[in-house]
Design brief:
There is one protein chain. Helices cover 43% and strands 28% of the residues. The protein is built from five helices and seven strands. It has one domain: HUPs (Rossmann fold). It has a five-stranded parallel β-sheet with strand order 5-2-1-6-7, sandwiched between helices. The chain has a two-stranded antiparallel sheet with strand order 3-4. α3 crosses α5. α1 links the parallel β1 and β2. By secondary structure, the protein is an alpha/beta fold.
Length: 145
Amino acid sequence: MKTIVLPIDFSEKSEYLIDEAIKFAQEVKARLSLIHVTPLDIGFAIGDMGFQYFPEVEKSEIKEELLQLNHLEQRVRDRGIECDHILKQGEAASIILDHAEEKKADYIVIGSHGRSGMYDVFIGSLTKSITKNSPIPVLVIPVHK
């Protein structure tokens, strides 16, 4: 059975992206592997005393994201597609590509928010980085409706 890696960012467009990935998985007879990458600095805040680390914030945020992933996995399974999920911390593009390699994925499905130009210069683009560096096919779903 084929495997599709699907990065999830929990944006308002994630629901649409999941629906499209499910359709693609049904067409190619594949399973989905959901991955969410959270930044390493999730528990840090800057205040009057500089950077401060709040482990309870990090723990709470990760717990909430895992609950969301569990919900999304069940939603995929309810549509008859095998699914698993993982949450990792770090630099998103390299972690997603490493995960796809570990899973021996046949495809990566990722959304394109339609941003370009100066946005890429200052912020960077996960989709651009994935498509540029992936050794496996990447299906980019436009989600900027």
